[in-house]
Specification:
Blueprint (H helix, E strand, L loop, with lengths): L8 H21 L1 H22 L8 H18 L4 H25 L3 H28 L5 H4 L19 H27 L7 H20 L4 H17 L10 H8 L3 H11 L3 H19 L10 H4 L20 H29 L5 H20 L9 H29 L1
Helix pairs in contact: 1-2, 1-4, 1-5, 2-4, 3-4, 3-14, 4-16, 5-8, 7-8, 7-9, 7-15, 7-16, 9-15, 12-14, 14-15, 14-16, 15-16
Subcellular location: Membrane
InterPro entries: O-antigen_ligase-rel_domated, WaaL-like
Main location: membrane
């Protein structure tokens, strides 16, 4: 029996797979632990590539779009007036996101692994909700004055933030998980109703219903209006592509507004009124950001340098203690930081995964995932109109984890197509 100081190729893949599951679990809960696991997995993957002599250029146009986005953002950071900070942020956010995308796409490649990944993701989301519920009930919310206009919403004393440390970020994270969980619930339910699926899927539906409800209620308690609107857009998407009757659920919104006099209704009404500090601040912020975009249309100012550059353009709130970390708009923020080509490349990555996943062949599990990535795209693009949650490391890594998961389906199908042609 041979003994080796280093693990065999099979064991390396086993360790990398487990580390990926660890990242999916740890990142929303404790990002520092998630980062350690992520870079351990990247290191082992590099060793695996060298030992197996499989270093090569990206395969498939989806991988090229991700590669272009990562490289363009890096060049933009290198050309920034704040290059040191921009490059550090680029490595921490974009390289890490591209790395976890590659890991999931490459090493989570079998139906059994896909299901384990989904279980880890959903289980972690439930734990995040439980932690948020505990904090919501028992721990005083010292940041509520920063998160709520007290004059506009005097009764709103709490907003759930959990391990994401901010209600809007928690809402964005839950929106991503809901895009997947509800897609599975609806596709399985539709399959049973149309008698396409066997009765065995009932158990999975019964398990998914409480998960989706817990995630949905927690999302409501973030009181994030942009996230609520995004979820409404996702309902329209599901109504068009899965179940038309789901569109009727939108009728509940005016009924709630008319009969229910609580803080959720007040926040919903405020969407249509638009007169509060948050809305006024955003309009001024977007106006100032346009000046940054006009002066830096191609390369931008560098990733995550918005808060360093914005004070030069700020005319709304003056003060040394006022920091704007991002533009509260995905499109304007990316235009400002990585230029017009950078924004186009990001949207190409996102839409490319949606279009490609629609063409996926296979079982109902993959079909549900393809619906899920479409809902994910809708959620990200709509919420991006009023915020930029991807500045959060936890939200960003979750986003790339889910894209990589769908990318794994695409890669497997591409490999099967090549084998069939040969």
């Amino acid at each position: 029996m041979e003994h080796s100081l280093f693990p065999t190729e099979t064991k390396l893949k086993f360790y990398i797979e487990r580390l990926i599951y660890g990242v999916a679990i740890a990142m929303p809960l404790q990002p520092m632990v998630g980062d350690v696991l992520l870079w351990l997995a990247v290191g082992l993957a590099i060793v695996d590539l060298i030992r197996s002599r499989s270093l090569s250029f990206p395969t498939g146009w989806l991988s090229w779009t991700v590669m272009f986005f990562v490289l363009w953002t890096g060049v933009s950071a290198a050309l920034s007036d704040n290059a040191q900070w921009a490059l550090t942020s680029w490595f921490y956010q974009i390289v890490a996101g591209g790395g976890i995308y590659y890991l999931v796409r490459t090493y989570i490649s079998t139906p059994k692994q896909w299901r384990y990944f989904l279980q880890c993701t959903l289980g972690t989301a439930i734990l995040v909700c439980c932690i948020g519920a505990y904090e919501y009930i028992f721990i005083p919310n010292h940041h509520i004055k920063e998160w709520v206009d007290a004059i506009q919403f005097p009764k709103l004393m709490r907003r759930m933030s959990s391990t994401l440390m901010n209600p809007n970020l928690l809402g964005a994270y839950l929106l991503m998980i809901l895009s997947i969980s509800i897609s599975y619930l609806l596709v399985y339910w539709k399959g049973l109703s149309d008698k396409i699926l066997s009765e065995e899927y009932k158990k999975q539906i019964y398990m998914m219903i409480p998960i989706a409800l817990i995630l949905f209620v927690t999302m409501l308690l973030t009181y994030s209006r942009g996230i609520w609107i995004s979820f409404g857009a996702m309902i329209i998407y599901w109504g068009i592509f899965v179940e038309r009757r789901l569109l009727l659920s939108l009728l509940a919104i005016p009924i709630i507004l008319y009969f229910y006099d609580g803080e959720i209704a007040t926040r919903l009404w405020s969407i249509f009124q638009g007169h509060d500090t948050s809305a006024d601040l955003r309009w001024a912020l977007w106006d100032s950001t346009m000046y940054i975009v006009r002066e830096n249309p191609v390369w931008g100012i560098g990733w995550n340098t918005f808060y360093l550059v914005y004070p030069e353009y700020n005319y709304y709130i003056q003060g040394p203690n006022v920091l704007m970390y991002h533009a509260h708009n995905l499109y304007l923020n990316m235009l400002a930081e990585i230029g017009i080509p950078g924004l186009i490349s990001f949207i190409t990555v996102l839409i490319g995964h949606v279009v490609t996943s629609i063409r996926l062949k296979g079982d109902v599990f993959r079909k549900a995932a393809s619906i899920g990535v479409g809902a994910l795209a809708v959620g990200v693009l709509v919420s991006g109109l009023s915020d930029f949650e991807l500045y959060s490391h936890q939200v960003t890594i979750t986003f790339w984890l889910l894209l990589g998961w769908v990318g794994a389906f695409v890669k497997v199908q591409q490999n099967q197509t090549k084998i069939n042609h040969n």
